[in-house]
Design a protein that fits this description.
Layout lengths: L7 E7 L5 E9 L2 E10 L2 H4 L7 H23 L8 E7 L3 H18 L3 E5 H7 L11 E6 L4 E8 L2 E7 L5 H12 L5 H9 L24 H13 L8 H30 L3 E5 L6 H13 L3 E3 L10 H8 L11 H5 L10
């Protein structure tokens, strides 16, 4: 919804997995500004089970939806009467979770006759580094999270091409599984990162799957198996001391960072691109940030990351992407509007 000279207040919703988020953004002649970005995390709920329980996620989204909306509006200093665009994640994700945020957005759009922008969750992540800095087209986007490890060529807001992806586990899923296996719990990304800071990255030499493949796909299941086998060969999780756990975490983190950087750099080489945007929850990993920044500088790449607080799922990134979508107007074509729905398998 690109209209120069017009002040747009954008109310955004994100509920694709276990976080419910509501944000308010302003777009005017000075650019885009985040006025509020409320995130209701369910880590304390799902940590008991070692992973996200879809039914619990959607039930708790229902509890969080209206309070998140009220707080987001209050912190932004606006009311629903000020809003003239609504953006919402429509997929991919857990269908029960998606429907809570998307239907709240759709209901408000219908009731207040405010245009609705349907946004892909991955698209939100792709552009999240540019909520705080100027966009740089074209760029290679690496999206890394508990559910995604994807590489895209991005030429514009309307030109996004998938180049490679994991063929099995996502890298964030790998961290979760190893953290759980070691007995440190869920979510594993932050835990592995913290343990790794106290460990020796050269203590174990874990494999780097698909590094010599002729495509840009990745695989992490073999790496997971290698780490689990190492733990078992050392006597199993119960016999692993904290020092060994730190060494395993550091060596694992190093292997993952190496795979991600080399595959992303290969994409830059193939397509002649010098800018890389790394986003998603795993982009908060300190070693991944360090490797991309330092090696990227040596390879003459411009590297972009979102702030750590904006790396996880959040509505601000959905609102940002929503500004560049063609919205649906409720009273313009009611039948078309009513048929707009969430799609848990929506791929870019």
């Amino acid at each position: 919804m690109e209209e120069s000279g017009i002040r747009i207040i954008n109310l955004a919703f994100e509920s694709s997995c276990d976080d419910f988020s509501c944000a308010v953004l302003l777009r005017d002649a000075n650019g885009i500004k985040i006025l509020s970005n409320i995130i209701y995390s369910q880590d304390y709920i799902h940590g008991i089970y070692g992973g996200v329980v879809p039914e619990l996620a959607s039930r708790n989204h229902i509890k969080a939806s209206l309070p998140s909306l009220r707080i987001a509006l209050s912190e932004a200093g606006v009311t629903l009467k000020d809003v003239n665009l609504i953006s919402a994640t429509a997929g991919p994700g857990l269908i029960g979770s998606l429907l809570i945020g998307f239907m709240e957005a759709k209901t408000l759009s219908y009731a207040l006759n405010i245009p609705l922008a349907r946004v892909n969750h991955i698209e939100g992540h792709i552009f999240s580094p540019f909520m705080e800095t100027e966009e740089s087209f074209p760029f290679i986007a690496l999206v890394i999270s508990g559910g995604h490890t994807h590489i895209y060529l991005v030429k514009s807001h309307d030109s996004i091409r998938l180049l490679g992806r994991t063929r099995d586990d996502a890298c964030g899923e790998l961290f979760d599984k190893i953290s759980n296996y070691l007995g440190f719990g869920y979510p594993g990304g932050k835990i592995i990162d913290q343990l790794a800071e106290k460990g020796d990255k050269d203590a174990f030499k874990f494999p780097l799957p698909m590094m010599h493949s002729k495509d840009l796909d990745m695989s992490f299941s073999g790496l997971k198996t290698a780490v689990v086998s190492t733990i078992d060969n050392l006597g199993g999780p119960d016999k692993i001391t904290e020092n060994i756990a730190c060494d395993i975490s550091a060596s694992l983190r190093e292997a993952v960072a190496e795979i991600l950087y080399k595959k992303t750099a290969a994409a830059c080489s193939v397509y002649g691109v010098k800018a890389i945007a790394v986003s998603g929850g795993v982009s908060a990993n300190s070693r991944i940030r360090s490797i991309f920044k330092h090696r990227g500088k040596n390879d003459n790449f411009n590297i972009f990351f979102p702030s750590v607080s904006n790396s996880t799922d959040n509505a601000a990134m959905i609102g940002y992407a929503g500004f560049f979508k063609t919205p649906a107007y409720p009273l313009e074509n009611m039948e078309k509007f009513l048929n707009i729905d969430a799609d848990p398998s929506w791929e870019l």
